[in-house]
Design a protein that fits this description.
This protein has 8 helices and 7 strands; from the N terminus they run ααββαββαααβαββα.
């Protein structure tokens, strides 16, 4: 479900696309959308429920450790701590304090902790779970989901980045561009934890809200074209007044 504000942003976006000559079917539901919604991403410490996918967390630990092993140990922001594994990153975040604040934990590290808890060695139960989850992800997001859509459509439009996760699971490209503005919520949405309200009396400006164009494999050039045409027709982005663009940054 989406709010009336978000619905208006999407309706306005669809109206712009149609005005530019696009043929838009609305709604255009992914056949197995409910199944996809029932399988989230494992972002909390184990034991992981069967209804979440360990692919992101498992791959993050496996690939970050492999990168650091190949690249060589790095030096953390304090200029002295050696970082050679995900465990080192977590330890640094826990220990790094500046001005009395654990600056490395401003947004938490739930995904890092979930990833570190997984055993990525060959033959482990976590590795078997990863392969099973990856197979399920591809079946739901690709075979039963987006592949069916792309038999009919050149691209699919999603609110904000809600469809980006589906495309990512399928291994398909997507691009997010400014779509409009909605009221800035007093509490950040998940997965930000813990939710922190704005200070009393703080008048939050409207929040930018994007739209996602997603397409089949190797459609990046077309998606960029769709997104650019949409941006040129809407021009809803408002540059931040606190950091004005340099003359060399302006793109007509």
């Amino acid at each position: 479900m989406i709010s009336a504000e978000i619905q208006k942003v999407m309706n306005d976006a669809i109206a712009v696309l149609r005005a530019q000559g696009a043929i838009v079917d609305d709604p255009a539901d992914i056949p197995d959308a409910q199944e996809l919604n029932n399988v989230g991403t494992c972002v909390v410490s184990p034991p992981f429920p069967a209804t979440c996918s360990t692919v992101l967390a498992y791959g993050f630990k496996r690939d970050l450790n492999a990168y650091l092993a190949d690249f060589g140990p790095g030096i953390a922001a304090d200029g002295k701590t050696v970082v050679s594994s995900l465990a080192d990153v977590i330890a640094f975040n826990n220990a790094f304090v500046a001005g009395g604040e654990k600056v490395g934990l401003k947004y938490g590290q739930d995904i890092l902790l979930a990833a570190q808890a997984l055993d990525t060695r060959a033959g482990s139960s976590d590795t078997a779970r990863y392969h099973a989850d990856r197979t399920r992800d591809l079946d739901l997001a690709r075979t039963k989901g987006l592949d069916v859509m792309y038999q009919t459509y050149d691209a699919v439009l999603f609110p904000a980045n809600r469809g980006a996760a589906i495309a990512a699971r399928a291994g398909y490209p997507s691009i997010v561009v400014p779509g409009g503005f909605i009221a800035n919520p007093a509490v950040p949405p998940p997965p930000l934890t813990p939710p922190t309200p704005f200070p009393a009396g703080f008048n939050a400006e409207p929040a930018p809200y994007g739209v996602t164009f997603s397409g089949p494999p190797f459609s990046e050039s077309r998606l960029i074209g769709y997104a650019y045409a949409f941006e040129q027709a809407t021009r809803v982005r408002e540059p931040p007044t606190s950091a004005p663009s340099l003359p060399s940054d302006v793109v007509e």
